[in-house]
Amino acid sequence: MPTSPHRPIIVWFRRNLRLADNPPLYQAIATGQPIIPIFLWTPEADAPWQPGAASRWWLHHALNSLATNLKDQLGLDLVLQTGNHPAELLAELAKTTGATAVYTDERWEPFAIEQAESVATVLTQQSVDFQQFNTSLLNHPTALKNKQGQPFKVFTPFWKTAVPLIEHLLEKCLPIPPKPENQHCVTFPPSVLLDALNLLPTVPWDAGFYADWNPTLEGAKAAVSAFLKERVETYFEDRNRPDLVGTSRLSPYLHFGQIGARQVWWATQVAANAKGKGGTHFLSELGWREFAHHLLVHFPTTPTQPLRADFEAFPWSNNAEHLQAWQQGETGYPIVDAGMKELWHTGWMHNRSRMIVGSFLVKHLLLPWQAGAKWFWETLVDADLAQNTMGWQWIGGCGADAAPYFRIFNPILQGLKFDAQGAYVKKWNPALINIPAENIHSPWEQKPALLRMDGVILGENYPAPIVDHAEGRKKALEAFATLKKNTDSEEA
Ligand SMILES: Cc1cc2nc3c(=O)[nH]c(=O)nc-3n(C[C@H](O)[C@H](O)[C@H](O)COP(=O)(O)OP(=O)(O)OC[C@H]3O[C@@H](n4cnc5c(N)ncnc54)[C@H](O)[C@@H]3O)c2cc1C
Fold first, then answer.
1. Are domains 1-135 and 309-481 of this chain identical in fold?
2. pLDDT, one tens digit for every residue, the chain (492 residues)
3. Domain 1-135: CATH architecture, name and number where available
4. Rounded distance, CA 492 to CA 487, Å?
């Protein structure tokens, strides 16, 4: 289609809320045409996967930061609009602005793929060019196939195949584009105020979030450099310790695209401290993120259905009291409760804790993994459909390359191993502050008189365990035994 130097291009921001290494923004500015940057808030179109409460909090601040940076660095005003469906809004925007094209970042959730298809249809009818660019992943999630030409279901061969492609294909990250010219030719469409999107909570449960996070573009950059300076060298040893800040804490920035995986990859490649085991292992975690998206694209029903079909018959419980105790961090297992409280107060949970609380939910309580995934969806600032789905199916033993269901985490031993002094548990369960390290992960094993001397009365200021570990384990194995043997063969 012929372009006109005076007609604008719409840059539709979705999960690429940044300026640098942002192909749709960069390529749009490179045309020399005026630019209209927009963000569309269409929660009904995303249902049931519209961002949860914690993600909306993050999104509010991420949009604010994007708008400020667009204005200060590129002289552009971010347009915010709300409506039922992106296709309706974009069709109208293209008509009223005379845009020749809409450029956007490619998303991989099934609902987002459908939305993009509808957008493509309506824009084509209006002779408006529609282009999607991969801004969030190292490789396109459909680029890789196993030796049989099928999607991978096992991580190690997936990552072995992916790495050479990344090394080979990855050009240097794109810089922040130059200020666009011709902006005076554009009549800007109307925009609502950010506050009108109502992304922030009306009840102030988010105080702890402000203490823990800087959800801006500057915060993203600072998080990458602090990790590469201070923690990547010890990442391999410390990554499983919820009592330490040993990981990057980049997940929400990556989810919202305030930093891109390519940028993190290259920053790690060139960081002096990242040459050893720490750097290599950290990069493989980005690989798990890639794998999660590969799985979601190829198995789009997995957010609600197990990848292993035999698990559809699993005899789950529906005990609402147990679910509530788990959600509120009132299970009586200190490491589980610490994780759930960390989640509630900060919108994030350490990966080791995610595995421990997840295993407790689906094994000790026999509650469906989907209930856990839903709670995480609402409460995580990094809630991501691909990663959350893979994480929960891994825990539930029903996903790709998953932990076998019969491998049941013992929350006491996990605590003793990964939070040996109980610092994490005490931080989030202050009632347990005086319990000695040897009992901190199983306070009920201490004599009641001694417990009382340490200031704890089970059932009063700290819950008694809602299930017995050995009993819970036995029931989980019995439930698992009712499933027919899995006959899926592993890929080569
Ligand atoms: C039940 C469950 C649910 C999860 N839900 C989410 C989710 O909704 N969103 C999310 O981003 N991560 C999720 N994870 C993965 C992981 O827990 C987080 O990515 C990690 O804890 C984020 O902390 P970090 O940025 O410090 O990670 P780091 O250890 O510093 O890793 C760097 C990056 O690699 C990616 N990554 C690390 N571990 C994993 C993993 N196991 N699977 C996929 N990607 C990974 C993340 O993008 C992370 O930011 C889940 C894991 C489990 C077990």
1. no
2. 445 778 999 999 999 999 999 999 999 999 999 999 999 999 999 999 999 999 999 999 999 999 999 999 999 999 999 999 999 999 999 999 999 999 999 999 999 999 999 999 999 999 999 999 999 999 999 999 999 999 999 999 999 999 998 876 666 789 999 999 888 878 889 999 999 999 999 888 898 899 999 999 999 999 999 999 999 999 999 999 999 999 999 999 999 999 999 999 999 999 999 999 999 999 999 999 999 999 999 999 999 999 999 899 999 999 999 999 999 999 999 999 999 999 999 999 999 999 999 999 999 999 999 999 999 999 999 999 999 999 999 999 999 887 788 889 999 999 999 999 999 999 999 999 999 999 999 999 999 999 999 999 999 999 999 999 999 999 999 998 888 554 443 322
3. 3-Layer(aba) Sandwich (3.40)
4. 15
Using CB distances shorter than 6 Å, the residues near ligand 1 are 239, 247-251, 254-255, 285-286, 288-289, 292, 351, 354-355, 358, 376, 380, 382-384, 387-388, 391-392, 395
As a whole number of angstroms, the distance between CA 144 and CA 161 comes to 7
Q: Which residue has the tokens 């949860």?
A: 52
> Domain extents for the chain?
1-135, 137-174+217-298, 309-481
Task: Give the separation between CA 429 and CA 462, rounded to whole angstroms.
Answer: 8
DSSP string, 39-95: EEE-HHHHTTSS--HHHHHHHHHHHHHHHHHHHHHH--PPEEEE-S-HHHHHHHHHH
Question: What is d(CA 323, CA 472) in angstroms, rounded to the nearest whole number?
Answer: 15
- Give the position, in ligand 1's atom list, of the atom nearest the Cα of 253: 49
Please name the fold of domain 137-174+217-298. Answer: 1.25.40
CA of 354 to the centre of ligand 1 (A): 9
pTM for the model stands at: 0.96
CA distance 371 to 319: 11
- Nearest alpha carbon, ligand 1 atom 31: 285
CATH topology of domain 309-481: DNA Cyclobutane Dipyrimidine Photolyase, subunit A; domain 3 (1.10.579)
